[in-house]
Design a protein that fits this description.
By secondary structure, this protein is mainly alpha-helical. The protein is 65% helix and 0% strand.
Length: 162
């Protein structure tokens, strides 16, 4: 277990160093990563990277980090992420018609079920993307901002003063 934790910690440190070396200010890097994470939460396979880079352009974020951020959804996380997004949307909008089953399958029912599923999935994806994107922005900005050490405390006495 300790070996696994050390491996994870080394990889996390390398990833943070890679982010640190990217172009732009800390704000631009954070906005780019957040844009990518937001777009990565949507089920637009093959277009998430393009959408992430486009959104990063709108918010003046780093494009490379936006592309990297879309990998929040990858072959290992597709099913749990999109299932969670669908369940979140269904919690807010209600279950809807759901899947009609193979016996009752016709074009009208399929269109209704398709919209019921997609509306819930897109709503859940929007909410999840907003939360994860906001968290990634805040965490990245917090990690990349230089520590401020020049602001003196007005209530602190200098040496030699009484």
């Amino acid at each position: 277990m300790k070996r696994l934790r050390n491996t994870f910690q080394r990889r996390l440190n390398r990833w943070l160093q890679w982010i640190w070396r990217q172009e732009g200010t800390a704000g631009q890097r954070a906005r780019g990563l957040a844009a990518g994470v937001f777009c990565g939460c949507f089920p637009f396979f093959g277009f998430q990277t393009l959408l992430g880079i486009g959104l990063a352009s709108l918010v003046r974020g780093n494009h490379l980090l936006a592309a990297a951020g879309t990998w929040i959804s990858n072959p290992f996380t597709y099913v749990p992420l999109f299932w969670f997004n669908y369940r979140l949307g269904a919690l807010i909008l209600g279950e809807g018609a759901g899947w009609p089953g193979l016996n009752n399958l016709n074009q009208e029912l399929l269109a209704t079920a398709g919209w019921d599923v997609m509306s819930r999935l897109l709503l859940g994806s929007s909410l999840t993307g907003t939360v994860f994107g906001g968290l990634s922005w805040w965490l990245t900005l917090h990690c990349l901002q230089p520590k401020r050490t020049g602001s003196p405390n007005p209530h602190r006495r200098e040496r030699g003063q009484r």
